[in-house]
Write a structure and sequence with these properties.
With 410 residues, this protein is an alpha/beta fold. Helix content is 37%, strand content 14%. The chain binds pyridoxal-5'-phosphate. Pyridoxal-5'-phosphate binds next to helix 4.
Length: 410
């Protein structure tokens, strides 16, 4: 098979065959699609003919990106949304109902965690567990458990979930394994290898990569037998059983909830995607260099990065991933002020985002986990001196020099 980067740069052209030799799919902004013969419109509505009817549900530019993701990840199908949270909320709200139970990671991305509270308000039971150990996930099982939701590498303290163990547990119980793979895109980790049912991802982060577009996706790996899932409505039990899940998410989660990606957004994401492997390689190299350097600095108490030998799941990360990702966090010694350090860094932007070409930093307790309060932060291992970095693709030495001068100053 062709190598990954070769595939990436030719993906749109080969998968979608844009007319006239174009290397990008045409992206039209048309909201409506008119048919010469009304019979054709009727057939498209009834799912007997492929086509677009209204761009909240599908349009050519969005369908082109979905086809690219489907080919790249070698999955059954993909749906894209206006943001990662739109993909996650649409998926959960269209597949779960009152009285169901979900087991979720206690280290979830903050907004997904907050969404779990909303689900509970709607009568969906949620257990938050330590996903670094599949036994803890198994211990949370109930008669009404439908799904396990985890991320590959957690934010900000970088715990690596027991993905293989959870995948097997889900397979044994016919539970959906919902895996948010935002932190470890396909070239670092193939979620099919741990039997994920649906892969969720924020396209905003590494896949698009340049901080200029929001997007999200849900991919069906084809590993889950939807006939085992009790919540698929009769109308969505289409001829191909493999499409039941995405059909319901498309109708209930995309059409009815309306978190649609724009044609322009789909185009920007597909252009960003061309350089995913180059950016990811450089990001991982920079993050490992920085983690190693910071871990022996006298003003730093501790560095959290799965690439470090002292990381509690380092061995697991070596087995699962082709690289340790671009996120690392560290605790300054208590006598130093994390805000002062961030102000003294000249290349590190103070911003809350991940997976950008630029290195970004933020004081965790004072920003993204401020709302949680001090006791919840303590329980999650988040100190007041914790800084999270999303490492970019700058020249490695510039980043090391920048940290050297800023740490010297404080
Ligand atoms: C950013 C992020 C999301 C949400 O994605 P948006 O595109 O910002 O809505 C979901 N999960 C993880 C792990 C993320 O880092």
């Amino acid at each position: 098979m062709d190598k990954f980067t070769t595939q990436l740069v030719h993906l749109d052209r080969l998968v979608n065959q844009p007319p006239g030799g174009g290397v990008h799919s045409d992206s039209s902004n048309s909201v409506l699609f008119a048919y010469q013969q009304v019979e054709d419109l009727v057939e498209v509505f009834q799912g007997k003919q492929a086509g677009h009817v209204y761009s909240r549900s599908s349009s050519p530019g969005v369908a082109a990106l979905q086809a690219m993701l489907t080919r790249l990840e070698r999955v059954n199908g993909a749906l894209v949304f206006s943001s990662g949270m739109a993909a996650i909320s649409a998926t959960l709200l269209s597949l779960l109902k009152t009285g169901d139970h979900v087991i979720a990671s206690q280290f979830l991305f903050g907004n997904t965690r907050s969404l779990m509270d909303t689900l509970q308000d709607f009568g969906i039971e949620v257990s938050l567990v330590d996903v670094t150990d599949a036994k803890q996930v198994a211990a949370a099982a109930r008669h009404n458990t439908r799904a396990v939701f985890s991320e590959s590498i957690a934010n900000p303290v970088t715990q690596v979930a027991d993905l293989a163990g959870i995948g097997q547990l889900c397979a044994d119980n016919n539970w959906l394994f919902l895996l948010d793979n935002t932190m470890t895109p396909i070239n670092l980790f193939d979620a099919k290898s741990v039997q994920a049912s649906l892969i969720l991802c924020s396209l905003t982060k590494y896949l698009a990569g340049h901080g200029n577009v929001l997007g999200g996706a849900v991919l069906d790996t084809g590993l889950y037998n939807w006939q085992e899932y009790p919540n698929i409505l009769p109308a969505y039990q289409v001829a191909d059983v493999q499409q039941w899940g995405l059909t319901q998410i498309k109708k209930r989660g995309l059409r009815d909830m309306g978190g649609t990606l724009s044609a322009d957004g789909a185009h920007r994401i597909s252009v960003g995607l061309e350089t995913l492997s180059l950016r990811m390689q450089r990001t991982c190299d920079n993050a490992l260099a920085l983690a190693n350097w910071l871990s022996v600095h006298p003003k730093i108490a501790r560095v959290y990065y799965p690439g470090l030998a002292e990381h509690p799941q380092h061995q697991r990360a070596c087995q699962l991933f082709n690289g340790f990702g671009g996120m690392l966090s560290f605790d300054l010694l208590p006598e130093y002020d994390p805000l002062a350090l961030l102000n003294d860094l000249k290349w590190v932007l103070c911003a809350t985002h991940l997976g950008d070409t630029r290195t970004l930093g933020l004081p965790v307790a004072q920003t993204i986990f401020y709302e949680n309060g001090a006791s919840a932060r303590a329980a999650m291992g988040i100190s007041d001196n914790l800084i999270r970095l999303s490492v970019g693709i700058e020249d490695s030495q510039d980043l090391l020099d920048d940290f050297a001068q800023a740490l010297e100053k404080i």
